[in-house]
What does this fold into?
Amino acid sequence: MATQTLTADNFQKTVEDGGIVLIDFWADWCGPCKQFGPVYEAASAEHEDIVFGKVDTDAQQELAGALNISSIPTVMAFRDGVLLHGQPGAMPAPMLSDLIQQVRDLDMDDVRRKIAEQEQSSDS
It folds into this structure.
């Protein structure tokens, strides 16, 4: 599957629709973003069951600000609407593949249980 452009209008729905969603926050003037772009595109072709989104931080400044994106490129990984990874820096292909495998391997019932426990302990 090719990458899709995400904006403030479709970001939330894309993340909440379920499954695995990877998002690359980038800008046209960013050298590391340009180097990472082909790696990200290749991964999107290899993993057709995953949504690969791209957010142009210049065009979507409000969205990038709401997500506290302070350095680009930044890759975020969501699964079933839950943010699992958010880290700046261009990744080499093996590192991106490893991230994808880690997200695939997670027991989401366990993740949701841990989130619920953290929310309960912070409410006390």
Notes: Strands lie at 4-5, 20-26, 51-56, 74-79, 82-88. DSSP finds five helices and five strands in the chain. Residues 31-46 form the longest helix (16 residues). The first strand starts at residue 4 and ends at 5.
